[in-house]
Amino acid sequence: MSETTPDRSGPDERAVPGRGEEAQVIVVGAGPAGSAAAFHLARAGVDVLLLEKSRFPREKVCGDGLTPRAVYQLIRMGVDISAPGWTRSRGMRWIAGDHRVHIDWPSLGRYPDFGLSRSRHDFDDILARHAVAAGARLRTEVKVTGPLTDRSGRVTGVTATTGTKESLTFRAPLVVAADGASARLALALGLQRDSRRQIATAARRYYRSPDRSREEYLELWADLRFPDSDHYLPGYGWIFPMGDGRVNVGLGALPHRRHGKADLRAALDRWLSRTPHAWGLREENAEGPVRSAALPLGFNRHPLYTRGLLLVGDSGGMISPWNGEGIGQAMEAGEVAAETATLALALPRGPGRERVLHGYPVEMNRRWGRYYRLGNTAADLVFGRSGFQPVLNRYVMGSPFLLNALARLLTNLTDRPSRDLTDHLLNGVMRVVPEPQVRRVR
Ligand SMILES: Cc1cc2nc3c(=O)[nH]c(=O)nc-3n(C[C@H](O)[C@H](O)[C@H](O)COP(=O)(O)OP(=O)(O)OC[C@H]3O[C@@H](n4cnc5c(N)ncnc54)[C@H](O)[C@@H]3O)c2cc1C
Q1: Domain that holds residue 259
Q2: Would you say the CB of residue 179 lies under 6 angstroms from ligand 1?
Q3: 61: Cβ below 6 Å to ligand 1?
Q4: Looking at residue 37, which CATH number applies to its domain?
Q5: Same structural domain for residues 268 and 375?
Q6: Are residues 302 and 436 in the same domain?
Q7: Which of 226, 233, 268, 424 is most buried, judged by most C-beta within 10 A?
Q8: Is 52 a pocket residue for ligand 1 (Cβ < 6 Å)?
Q9: Residue 414 domain-assigned?
Q10: Quick check: CB of 197 below 6 Å from ligand 1?
């Protein structure tokens, strides 16, 4: 089956038989986190049910940009990224004031040296179908309404409704919550977000812009301002090529410490009126409305495992506080959750299995704990005040080494063990950041 012209008649996709189903693992939400988790579980021979409230293909508000770490996750899943529809990027172009610099993605031992963009309309559909091809059972138009629990409070499945408002019950010893920023399942178990962590918001719109659509760089603007003052916006703007005659244009910002939340729509208008007319980023070339959504950053929900429920992707607040990127993170966490669940299911129910499951937050903390802790601090002290202005100053913009190091810091691209001076520098900095404690509740 081709990835670009998917066959929608598969028997597995729509019908929900009887009053529900059973599986070894239920995954709620077929975004990048859920589809990656379901794919890796199915590949490991686990019987997995993937429940999604929408019907594919569907829109998802996003910038559609993938850095090399996200591409690496796609390659690990065997997604055919040479098929038509994927647009490659060779690096980032940063614009701040009069400065304009190009930073190519680094050549590393572990990660590819290119990025990609693809609309989430197609991307999520491809990933969900990839999970199905690996053996996952996908049920769309099934809205999960809450967890099912036993007397001890342990999750034993979920309740859901279908498009026809039929109530259903799905049972499994393990549930993966990949339901995005709404985090409905986590909240139902009392897992509130950490109010000390910042929540960014971002808005995007597509424009027809045939020239810019074939750009080789992901373009980022660091000098955006509030719509009604000259204060710098604590965030950045992007123009990402879609390769199909369109660009994805948007901006994301933290709430400013003194000026609060910006009106993103007005800030977008102010910014785009500065761009050359020939680029076409004007109302008459816009496709669809400006749409915005929240970005839960920097591990803002804990614990990532409790009582049979694993949180993955935005539901666990896994967006990088360094750059607002969350697709690759969602896929990577999906893989780790799947590995953990597969190991746990190989053991009988009981303390041994629980120990394995509690290893999931430990592994996520090992991977990103220090990096996110430093990123959260940078978001509080620097990005939340003046965006990227202080770090993209003229000294940094004028130094290829510093620029490269900054770009690799923002996108978490190092080799371990270190292979070059930048690796030594960045890995050395991370080593001195104290590792956050993993909070464990029953
Ligand atoms: C404007 C904007 C721009 C962004 N740009 C980028 C970018 O360029 N690159 C990047 O890497 N990240 C970007 N992000 C972040 C990225 O979109 C998210 O981090 C990513 O989508 C997280 O994936 P997820 O699978 O955890 O959640 P989601 O993608 O939100 O998927 C959750 C899924 O669960 C389903 N669902 C929700 N509730 C239920 C329910 N009750 N029952 C059944 N199904 C349910 C939803 O329909 C959805 O399909 C951006 C975010 C925003 C808002």
Answers
A1: 199-296
A2: yes
A3: yes
A4: 3.50.50.60
A5: no
A6: yes
A7: 233
A8: yes
A9: yes
A10: no
